[in-house]
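Need tokens for this chain, all 448 residues.
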Amino acid sequence: MGFVKKAEFAPYSVERGGYTTLKSLITAVVRDLVSYYEHPDESGTAQNGFKLLYPMDNPDLGDPDSIDTDVFVVQATGHVDPLAGVDPSFEAAGADIIPQPWIIRFDAGVGKQCNPTHNNRREDRNNNAPEVGNLHINISTPLQLHQPTVGDWQMYDYTPPNRGVGDEPVVIGTLGFLGERIAVQDKQVAWCDPNDSLRLEIEDKGFFCRRPLYNIKTEFESNYPDTALVNIAGTPNIPMSYALSVSDHGIALAIWEEATDQYDAKGHRHSWLVCQRLVDKETGKPLVEQAESHCPLTCLYGIQNQTQDITRYFVVRESDVHRPSEDLDATANTRDSVALINPQEQISVTENYEYVISVPSGINTQRYFYLEEMDMLGYCSADIISQDGVAELSMYSDGTKKRYKGLRATGKYNSGLRILMRWYNTAITTQNNVGQPDVVPGSSAGSY
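Here are the structure tokens for all 448 residues:
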């Protein structure tokens, strides 16, 4: 069941809160991705930005407890990315499209106790174990996705071509991973050993970490070696919220713990990602003409918690490249890559007392430098706009104003940098986790 009865796709945004487990939050995110719109006619099929690939048994996304997996895989449709599938506008123009499919894999159960007799990277997870508080996300092409006949869908391990000479292959995590990839020898990690420090490091360096802030490795796991018997998840009375925007050329997603603005990066948890086709700086038109460009699909993400404080990016795919690139630091000039974003506190006011909001630009692939930019995200000094504040910007030659919603500041007490995400609703509408109706995009309340 969708939240808005509307047959045709239109860009939308939604914010929901009150989640105490990552599984319940991610299940809601997936529901907003694959079934936000519901066709007014029960016999019809609404146009949504993604389709659910896994689980394949048509799960009830409104009831997370009824789903016996923590892994979800969705694939982009032509509504969220014209090159991901057949888009009606391209068909009408008579253009030939070579599909460039891409997927998002969510794993909200990283760290659950596995079968004690099993000790390799394909752990036999106990889905009934309490949540220990780690979320891993991969964005890639379907070619990096392993679909076993039994067990959850996994990402293939990644072994760089220049590794493993004369020794066992060195695994560098997985491709398209949002977080810090840790190098390990194959089977070096004791996935079933709750005291294995390398396993814990790999688990904690993902997109969102909910482990308690005190030293869980020494305090909890020394006293309770069987972590399946102890709920060591992030404190349940600190709920989580998320904001999601789905456009016709990409998505933006942010997850944070509520009311933690008085803490610095070590005391709060806030993660965000943007995955989109670049847009022209003058017109705002997405770069999707395959006859003129390799049309890179780019992912930029930021993670702040007790284990990471990073902002990185990678190219998910190009028209003729079918794998994610190595991720790079988005805040520094490095070889063949320029900084996309300034992570420090900065001046965002001109001499004429105009506020300045910047958007990331200067994307490099291994072959080309792109003048286009990422319009799904902006950034400015945190004191320019508050969290949940909305800025309306005239950015492109189409003459329309684009809305951007402020996210959590990077520093304590609303200091440092503030990330803004593209916001398509006419108001800041916060829904609880039951799923209240949103402002319908394209309604008389405003233009999009």
